[in-house]
């Protein structure tokens, strides 16, 4: 079963219930969430939530903020369901979260794509998982990918920012080398500024040394979804 980050989903549902009934949101499955949010001015909700979340996490912010909404949003959501299930099936170590009309994927040192301490070169396991990921991205070409690099709090700020950039670039460059168009990829470096776990513990630091991906619909997918609705 796909892992769910309750805090992330809670943010979306809390905002959505301000404009739609609780019952409507609670009864919505992943495919329908885009339609439910869109019916209640999803672009407004997505923009507000996206702008707030971007301050903490640009990948998740982009996923939430890129709302088409309405029935077209439901069409996009259905396609994202399939892609998320494919990622989870082929890369079981990844933390895959379906959010609205996009996907948030987290790889840390305990799963998926990871790096040795103070290193940014990709190891054999990371390359194996990125090969699988590249294959999925080729299967679903109408998506854009945000790649974020993060570190723990060990070391100074400047060093960690550079390290996170090198790690994000390593992932982006590898995906491009596997045939993913560079135009689909946007890279961010956050250093130690966006921890998700407690840096006071070894386990928390390991989880903070991560690469995070946001997968969103590109303009073609949005146009195709809107055209499908009109037919």
What does this structure look like?
The protein is an alpha+beta fold. The chain has one domain (6-230): OmpA-like domain (60s Ribosomal Protein L30, Chain: A, 2-Layer Sandwich), CATH 3.30.1330. The protein is built from ten helices and five strands, in the order H-H-H-H-H-H-E-E-H-E-H-E-H-E-H. It has a five-stranded mixed sheet, sandwiched between helices. Strand 1 (95-99) and strand 2 (102-108) form a beta hairpin. Helix 1 (6-16) packs across helix 4 (42-54). It is elongated, with a radius of gyration of 17 Å. The two termini are 34 Å apart.
| Percentage of residues in strands | 5-15%
Question: What's the order of the H and E elements?
Answer: HHHHHHEEHEHEHEH
Termini separation comes to 34 Å
How many discrete domains? 1
CATH architecture: 2-Layer Sandwich
Radius of gyration: 17 Å
Number of helices: 10
Placed side by side, the strands forming the largest sheet appear as 1-2-5-3-4
State the helicity in percent bands: 40-55%
Report the average pLDDT across residues. 78
Residue windows where pLDDT falls under 50 for at least 5 positions: 3-55
Major sheet size, sense and barrel closure? 5 strands, mixed
Q: Report the strand count.
A: 5
- Look at the structure and name the CATH superfamily: OmpA-like domain
